[in-house]
Design a protein that fits this description.
By secondary structure, the protein is mostly helical. The protein contains seven helices and two strands; from the N terminus they run βαααααααβ. A two-stranded antiparallel ribbon has the order 1-2.
Length: 193
């Protein structure tokens, strides 16, 4: 399998740029329904579904780049986060670590799903979604949330458990979507297997 992405050569093709832009837009659209909080300062949103799909479909480098583009647009003040939030202030709020986790999570998902430049399989894809889309995002989000809210790490971790059921559902949806695309429209991956 060959990755036709030119990121490794420090160049992006027009198709790569378009794909990155599309996934940045997907993340923004997934924030439109807004979010809600249950026990914490961080809202529950659908945007991590987009992170999972970006990593799985675009691969590690382009997936991370799409998240970086999205976050750059947020930093410029575009109201792309759930609830119409945007601006540099969100990067010093309780969600800051989760936003950073979007970039790293998409990268890790891409690495796992496309390990060895092989066609995505059910187990690799599901593992990528859980490890990159949940564990990695939480690994950045929870400590920074605890630091910013000045709550103990253990308490922040416990309140963050409310995200797990929704994130597991998103991981299942992202896995199913990815595997459906592999069968129905493999060109979406811009790879040959």
């Amino acid at each position: 399998m060959t990755d036709t992405s030119t990121v490794t050569r420090a160049r992006l093709s027009a198709a790569d740029i378009a794909r990155v832009a599309v996934f940045a837009a997907v993340i923004a659209v997934l924030g439109l329904p807004g979010g809600f909080t249950i026990f914490g300062a961080v809202p529950i949103t659908a945007q991590t579904l987009g992170v999972m799909l970006a990593g799985a479909i675009l691969g590690p480098w382009l997936g991370a780049l799409s998240m970086t583009v999205f976050l750059a647009l947020v930093a410029l003040g575009l109201p792309l986060l759930s609830g119409g939030r945007g601006g540099i202030a969100v990067f010093v709020g309780p969600s800051a670590g989760y936003l950073i986790g979007f970039v790293v999570g998409a990268f890790v998902i891409g690495l796992i799903v496309h390990a060895g430049n092989r066609k995505p399989t059910l187990w690799r894809t599901a593992t990528g979604m859980v490890v990159g889309g949940i564990l990695v995002v939480y690994a950045f989000g929870i400590p920074l949330q605890a630091l910013i809210t000045r709550l103990p790490l253990g308490e922040t971790f416990l309140t963050s458990l409310v995200f797990i059921p929704g994130d597991l559902i998103k991981a299942v949806l992202a896995t199913a979507t990815t595997l459906t695309l592999v069968r129905a429209y493999p060109r979406a991956f811009h790879r040959t297997w």
